[in-house]
Specification:
The complex is a heterodimer of chains A (about 375) and B (about 210). With about 375 residues, chain A is of the alpha/beta class. Chain A contains 9 helices and 17 strands. In chain A, strand 8 (about 135-140), helix 4 (about 140-160) and strand 9 (about 160-165) form a beta-alpha-beta unit. The chains are: A alpha/beta (about 375), B mainly beta (about 210).
Chain lengths: ~375, ~210
């Protein structure tokens, strides 16, 4: 993207460094995140950061970048979803998001919807499916618990009743009793908020053995897996999974054209979402720099003032907290016969639809 | 089968997918990733005459045959999700060797004294010696490689997303480089670069960690 722009942003010539905050096959490393943040904060010529990929890493970096000696460094993340980075909610810490902005000035925006929007999107999807009674399950971890809380909050607003809630035990060998309890609650939908790594496949198997097709099962984005669905002989087919942002298949024409040029010959469903969102983040930062007076404060102002209808990922603007609008949520359906996508990190899912979540459902 | 102005369409049914295709004489070979099979199609009769199972290597659960090519007396297929290449003997219609390669092998070329495999997941090209059924060389080509061909005395790799970073002019202007060891050299901007942008993202295809 930078090369396409000739390393220019309006009248400014820009240079680039790619930094990595992760260890191979381990994901983000907080120590690397902290080291990167210190390096960013000490470099007066740094005008902006694209990242981090992981919310936890952003949480480590934000306070350092906000308090940088030469002024808060503008940051745009293509992928963060943790709610507390931008706004408070029923499952955020008491000092969030203020702890990330010690100067009091905001310097962060994100491109995809926060987790509370994702849970609300799930509720809207279930409403579209005609579901009336939702049972909330979480894996007891922070992200899972938060997703269930946000799901409960939005369910009331969209007119879905809460049939019950529970935390599943990731070490359990059977979920038969849990499933029987859900059946007795007469739930016609179950939210699985947590990680597939928390014994999620056994959980689904147990729920289906009792509930059969009487309840729609839908997992939050952590239920995606690289190949757990593809060799299960259809056992998980028909379960839904949500994810913030749009897959390549659902991008508007500018996004599809961009990807076709970047990755010629590649099927759209074999392109990871992160490619288009990283490009969009770069484009918006360059636009903000081009409209600025070359200072960090000015770039931050212009970044937050972004309002475009022709982005790679579609129309986008930000609220004062840095959250995107619109905030689409994609719904996927598990299908063991889905085309294999070797360039994609997730297998066995097919894109089902996009849910647009109104801001009024959150605030 | 439908015929229309020289175009023939074969329908293999919902059980199969068509991820890769190669042809010789009267035979077309199809890589079907969805059911881990290679189909042999007799074009004289337009019928599938063999359905060859492609097994995943021990550490993987699915093989997902993806790209297919013919050469050195064999049919070669990349098993994109089990990080291997399968060699099929066309006289037996059976896999006679499974060769472990790099991460996410997605492209294949045959010629110039080897079977050449592009591993999209780790940005390498590997050369397989067909006499030994073994990888004999590994060449880093970068994460954005998209295609490979062998011929004219060399092996050619296409790279998406613009030129590789190393070809951009280095910066000698007023910028100072970021000091973190995880950061690449400064690229772009030329001597007059005034402002620096950093990305803070994983640089390799990762296993799913969708909670961002």
């Amino acid at each position: 993207m930078l090369a396409q722009h000739g390393f220019r942003a309006g009248r400014y010539r820009v240079a680039y460094q790619a930094c990595d905050d992760s260890r191979p096959n381990e994901g983000a490393d907080p120590a690397l995140c902290a080291a990167n943040a210190r390096a960013y904060a000490l470099d007066a010529s740094l005008i902006g950061v694209i990242g981090a990929f992981d919310s936890g890493c952003t949480g480590v970096e934000l306070p350092t970048l906000n308090a940088a000696p030469s002024g808060p460094v503008p940051i745009i993340s293509p992928s963060n979803t943790y709610v507390g980075l931008t706004h408070a909610g029923p499952a955020t810490a008491a000092d969030e998001p203020d702890r990330y902005y010690p100067t009091g000035a905001r310097n962060y925006v994100r491109l995809v919807a926060a987790d509370d929007y994702q849970s609300a999107g799930i509720d809207l999807f279930l409403k579209q499916q005609g579901r009336k009674r939702l049972y909330l399950l979480d894996d007891g971890e922070g992200t899972g618990y938060a997703g269930a809380v946000y799901g409960q909050q939005a369910a009331r607003k969209v007119g879905i009743g809460i049939a019950g809630s529970a935390t599943w035990d990731p070490t359990a060998r059977s979920y038969h009793r849990l499933a029987q309890g859900i059946a007795r609650s007469r739930a016609d939908a179950v939210l699985l908020s947590g990680c597939v790594c928390s014994n999620g496949l056994t959980l689904i198997t147990g729920l289906r053995a009792v509930l059969h097709d009487t309840a729609t099962l839908i997992g939050t984005d952590n239920f995606s897996t690289s190949d757990g669905f593809t060799h299960a002989h259809g056992r998980f087919d028909g379960v839904y999974i949500s994810s913030a942002g749009l897959p390549a298949l659902a991008l508007p024409p500018p996004g599809r054209r961009f990807l076709a040029t970047l990755l010629p010959g590649r099927r759209m469903d074999d392109i990871d979402q992160s490619a288009s969102y990283a490009a969009q983040a770069t484009e918006l930062l360059l636009d903000a720099i081009s409209r600025s007076n070359g200072t960090r404060a000015s770039v931050t102002r212009e970044l937050i003032a972004t309002n475009t209808n022709h982005g790679i990922t579609g129309p986008i603007s930000f609220d004062t907290g840095g959250d995107p609008a619109p905030a689409p949520i994609a719904i996927y359906r598990i299908d063991s016969n889905a085309p294999r996508n070797p360039h994609h990190s997730v297998q066995g899912e097919v894109f089902d639809r996009v849910i647009k979540v109104p801001r009024a459902l959150i605030h | 089968m439908n015929g229309n102005r020289g175009v023939r369409t074969l329908d293999f049914g919902a059980a199969h997918s068509v991820d890769g295709v190669a042809a010789n004489a009267d035979t077309v070979w199809i890589a079907s990733g969805s059911d881990d099979r290679v189909l042999r199609v007799d074009m004289l009769t337009a019928r599938v005459v063999a359905s060859i199972p492609i097994a995943a290597v021990a550490q993987a659960s699915v093989a997902s045959p993806y790209t297919i090519a013919i050469g050195d007396g064999a049919v070669w297929v990349t098993d994109a999700l089990s990080d291997s290449v399968s060699r099929i003997d066309p006289t037996l219609d059976a896999v006679t060797a499974t060769i472990k390669v790099g991460r996410r092998p997605t492209r294949l070329a045959i010629g110039e004294r080897g079977v050449w495999v592009l591993n999209a997941g780790d940005g390498t090209v590997m050369r397989i010696d067909p006499r030994r059924n073994a990888v004999v060389a590994t060449i880093p080509v970068g994460a954005d490689a998209t295609g490979i061909a062998a011929g004219l005395g060399g092996v050619w790799v296409s790279v998406g997303g613009g030129p590789p970073h190393a070809t951009f002019p280095s910066v000698h202007g007023p910028l100072s480089a970021l000091s973190s060891p995880s950061c690449s050299p400064v690229v772009g901007g030329g001597r007059g670069a005034e402002l620096l942008i950093a990305s803070d993202l994983p640089r390799r295809l990762a296993d799913p960690a969708p909670s961002h």
